[in-house]
Design goal:
It is built from four helices and no strands. It is mostly helical. It has one domain: Substrate Binding Domain Of Dnak, Chain:A, Domain 2, CATH 1.20.1270.
């Protein structure tokens, strides 16, 4: 007979509200950017660069969710790299006035904002290097 085991924590219970927001925003961005890439492809070859950029954004957002799920509080250098990639992509996407692209830019802006806040919080607490 082993000792009593208390209630198990849920994954979400172990994350700060900032990290939960980043994960949510990244998941929304991944979905939106993937949809936008498909819309751009359907529209024609004039949006090929936009479609590739959206696919890149979706892939980076997906990778960000995976990395943050492993250890959200230790590696702000990864967060900084993702942030820079998102900012570069936003510069590219802002050239297009196609509604799906504008939706993606909005989702990208939310992800950039929540990621920036999370990075600042980790740095204020003295973490973020490894």
């Amino acid at each position: 007979m082993g000792g009593e085991v208390g209630p198990k924590s849920k994954f979400e219970d172990l994350l700060t509200s900032e990290v939960q927001m980043v994960l949510h925003d990244f998941q929304k961005l991944e979905t939106t950017a993937e949809w936008c890439a498909n819309e751009c492809i359907e529209r024609g070859p004039e949006l090929a660069t936009c479609a590739r950029t959206c696919r890149d954004i979706a892939d980076i957002a997906h990778l960000g969710v995976q990395l943050l799920s492993r250890n959200p509080y230790r590696r702000t250098d990864v967060g900084d790299a993702i942030l820079n990639a998102f900012l570069d992509a936003r510069d590219e996407l802002q050239r297009y006035r196609y509604p799906p692209v504008m939706d993606t830019v909005q989702a990208l802006d939310r992800a950039v904002e929540s990621l920036s806040k999370a990075i600042e919080t980790v740095q204020r607490r003295g973490g973020g290097t490894q």
